[in-house]
Structures are given as C-alpha cells and as structure tokens.
C-alpha cells in the first residue's frame, strides 16, 4: 500500500509543487490550503506523514487533532521563520529556504521510502 502524505500550507503553489514532487508509486500525496479541508480529509485517512505550516490559521489546532486522532502520524513543520517554536521539540522541522533534498531526507527517514 502507498504511504499517504498530507501537505497543508496556505501557499497553493507550494502545496502543488510538493504534491507533484513527492508523488510516486509508493507515495500518495494529498494537499490542502486550509486546515478545515485537511481536517475533513483526516476523518477518513490516516496519513503517515503530515507536512504542515504551523504559522497558518489553526495550524496548531491541526497538530492537536493529529496527535489525538492519529498519534502514529509523523509531523514535519514547514517554516518560513527561524524563530524557535515550542512545537519543534516533538516534531521534525523543515525551513522553506533549505534545499528540497533535505525535505526528502526527512521524509525518507520517517517512512523508509526512497524516491
């Protein structure tokens, strides 16, 4: 079965780019630009990895829901700022100005799938 990855960011171009680049025979990517749409999706699907911008509206609410409903899902914060965030202690962090290959490495570590 393909590993489901969820991408949630208010930047539609980034969501579309990540969905396109990460999609493969072993990885299925679903992307959303609102937390409310992502929450509807999570009613039926447990993602293996969630790439999430915590700076968007209700981003922390989505993290709380993931931890409650799908505690086995790995969370990767997609950040634009370098400010420390208390969430960083318990999740992986990818700064958007880092090379894309670094994000691939984080995901590969989490799900054990290579592209």
Your description of this structure?
The protein has 115 residues and is α/β, with parallel strands linked by helices. The protein has a single domain (3-111), classed as Response regulator (Rossmann fold). The chain contains 4 helices and 5 strands, in the order βαβαβαββα. The protein has helices at residues 12-22, 35-42, 59-69, 100-111; strands at 3-8, 27-32, 49-52, 74-79, 92-95. The protein has a 5-stranded parallel β-sheet with strand order 2-1-3-4-5. α3 links the parallel β3 (49-52) and β4. α2 packs parallel to α3. 26% of the residues are buried.
Topology diagram in text:
Blueprint lengths: L2 E6 L3 H11 L4 E6 L2 H8 L6 E4 L6 H11 L4 E6 L12 E4 L4 H12 L4
Parallel strand pairs: 1-2, 1-3, 3-4, 4-5
Helix pairs in contact: 2-3
Descriptive key words:
Rossmann fold, globular, five-stranded parallel beta sheet, 115 residues, single chain, 23% strand, alpha/beta
- What's the rounded overall pLDDT mean? 87
Task: State the helix count.
Answer: 4
Derived from helix and strand composition plus strand pairing, the structural class reads alpha/beta
Order of helices and strands: EHEHEHEEH
| Helix percentage range | 25-40%
Lateral strand order in the biggest sheet: 2-1-3-4-5
Text of the CATH class: Alpha Beta
CA distance, first residue to last residue: 16 Å
